[in-house]
Amino acid sequence: MNPRRVGADFVVFTKGYLRNPIGLFFSLIFPIILIGLFGLIFSVSGSSTVTVYTENLDHHSATSVAFLAALNQTGAVKIQVVGPVTNESFASWLAQQGYPVGLIIPAGLESSFTNHTPVNVTVFTDPQDAQSSGITLGAVEGVANGFNLKAVGGTPVLGATNQNVGSQVLKYIDYLVPGLIGFSILTSPMFSMVEISSTYRKDHLFRQLSLTPLTKGEWLASKIAWYIVLTFVSAVIMIVFGVVVFGSHVGFTLGLIPFLALGPFFFVSLGMLAGSVARTPEIAAVVGNIITFPMMFLSGTFFPVSGFSPFLQNIAHALPLYYVIDGMNQVMLFHNNTRALFDIGIVAIGGALTFIAAIAAFRWREE
Amino acid sequence: MADAITVQGLTKRYGTLAAVDGIDFTVPEGKVFAFLGPNGAGKTTTVEVLEGLRRQTSGEVRVLGLDPWAQGTELHKIIGVIPQEFRFFEKITPREAILYYATLFNVKVDTERLLEKVALSDKANARFDTLSGGQKQKLGLALALVPAPQICFLDEPTTGLDPQARRGIWEVIRDLRREGKTVFLTTHYLEEAELLADLVAIIHQGKIIASGTPAEIIRKFGRPERLVVEGPASLGEYLKRLVQRPVTISDGRIEIHMRDKADALMVLKTIEDSGIPWKGFATVSDTLEDVFVGLVGRMDEGVVAAGAKA
Predict the structure, then answer these.
(1) Are residues B49 and B172 located together in one domain of the fold?
(2) Closest residue to B76, CB basis, from A5, A204, A211
């Protein structure tokens, strides 16, 4: 392996890549778009409180006002009191307005509460919006239980405190950033190398290169080097974007470096292997997609693998990208270096074996 | 003069098809050797075996004393190659490509001089995908020259080029010859071979059917020099009766095969004596192309045996 030749090939390949806007778009811009899209979708549904349109028929009694204030304090719901709804039922009014949840405080709530007479508040829910319904019902039941205890002079004995996984408060975006860095580690090298290996062969560029002192290993090493650089740039952009736009808690840690280096090493080699075994560019594209797409969705890129069925989890554990993403989660979110070491070990061994297989499979000379 | 290339009994089979079938030839150092043949004759297979890009099925091949397949790495440092329809990285400029090759071969190259040599200076910073076919071939030629090769293999380097671009490539080939380099040229253009080559071999159906200098091949396989006279068919019939030489008549054109100048003088005197009006005359000889077409045609008819040497 001659570093000067690897460097020369790296420079030429880099220039070619940077002069091709399509490659740059999919490597640097597309993952940012995905972070933006998924971040927006899940930050809206995951962090906003549910507005509960409320008709208070107890005419501003102290108890009803305290009950609604307690609901507001849960942070899960926001009470929006509406005036008396005339000439139609409250349920119909909610439906007409497109509001998924509502609440009626019955008349006489305060007197019933004072006299210890059972009384119900009515929660209106939309079965099509299970999330808002569940949040509202939970909040109302929780506050009602508190009032019941107060009414009988009781004191809560068993409570629960909430803490997020990890040492800090984590949001969906915190999982999405490592997932999409993994997505980038997978897709850029895989799709590029599958295409390169088949088109270079079709255009006889490998034969052209075989007439120079450049070796197969040096050629592949320069591609790996370029995709490592690209992955580092892409990762920094994604992390900064996640932090600045969505307030994510992930940062660039030293533990990330092995994954940003060995991930591209694995997938450049895998892309080269896939492109080499296919006889035509068309077959190569199919082989590349067959390998890439299951990994893209089943390795924890967009959603945590722990939420999958046991069957899909078993499949995920057989995919190399799972170990890349899991490892990055461990170092970026949970600071679990032992687990990360296991993950990087899998990636390193798999990458080395794939590299050797790719070198053996792709032929420099006679076709 | 030592031989730069020696080939003995070279055979290359693809399954049951013999693309190259037991050919022998040598190329002396410093000569331009043209390897001619119709499409599918085995030219490219042969040149790729010589370049170390394909392994022969059997036979002995030595290029500058090296086995091209087994010692390809060493060989590729001292040969230059332009494949058919040269392709390169689309977004790279000729200047960058030359610097890239110079680094790979670990040689110092005067990039500007090389670009000038192949008449590509004005496109030095243009990306490969914007170059014309001729300019791409010129870049291929420039890259082939980067390692200062002892032998240049040029596989149909002027196919598809306009006349000006072809002449540019020819000039570079002449320069190489002047510098004492050996050039192995395959081409479809017979006039190109006749103009440039010191030696020629014609391959057909995997076998060499003629080899030697162009003049030797024309002399051996071509028709004798002819006197062509423009005149009526009656004049042709008259000559047939009197000159004792083969005469052909077609469309006001009478061809008389000659052995020497005396035959020409005798025929012209006979024409003058006939009193039949005629317009003019010229002498014509076979070109390499005429010989090639005739040889390949006769080979297809089974008239000429393979391996003939001029």
Answers:
(1) yes
(2) A211
Q: Which of B177, B194, B220 is the last residue of a domain?
A: B220
Do B34 and B47 lie in a common domain?
A: yes
Contact B46, B185 (CB under 8 A): no
In a domain, B169, yes or no: yes
Name the domain count of chain B: 2
Angle between helices A281-298 and A172-202 (to 10 degrees): 170
pLDDT digits (tens, 9 = 90+) for B132-176: 888 888 899 899 999 889 999 998 888 777 788 788 888 888 988
**Dmax (CA) of chain B:** 77
CB within 8 Å of chain A, chain B residues 81-110: 81, 83, 86-92, 96-97, 100-101, 103-106
Q: Nearest CA of chain B to the CA of A353: how many Å?
A: 26
Q: Show residues of chain A in contact with B79, CB under 8 Å.
A: 211
Q: Give tens-digit pLDDT for A296-345.
A: 888 888 877 877 788 888 888 999 999 999 899 888 887 788 889 999 99
Q: Which domain covers residue B252, as residue numbers?
A: 224-284
Domains and CATH numbers, chain A: 3-43+167-361 (no CATH), 49-151 (3.40.1710.10)
Cα dihedral: B44, B47, B48, B52 (round 10): 180
**A212 and B CB contact within 8 Å:** yes
- What is the pairing mode between strands B247-250 and B199-204? unpaired
Cβ–Cβ contact A142 with B under 8 A: no
Q: In this predicted model, what pLDDT tens digit does every residue of B39-62 receive, in sequence order? A: 888 888 999 999 988 898 999 999
ipTM of the complex: 0.76
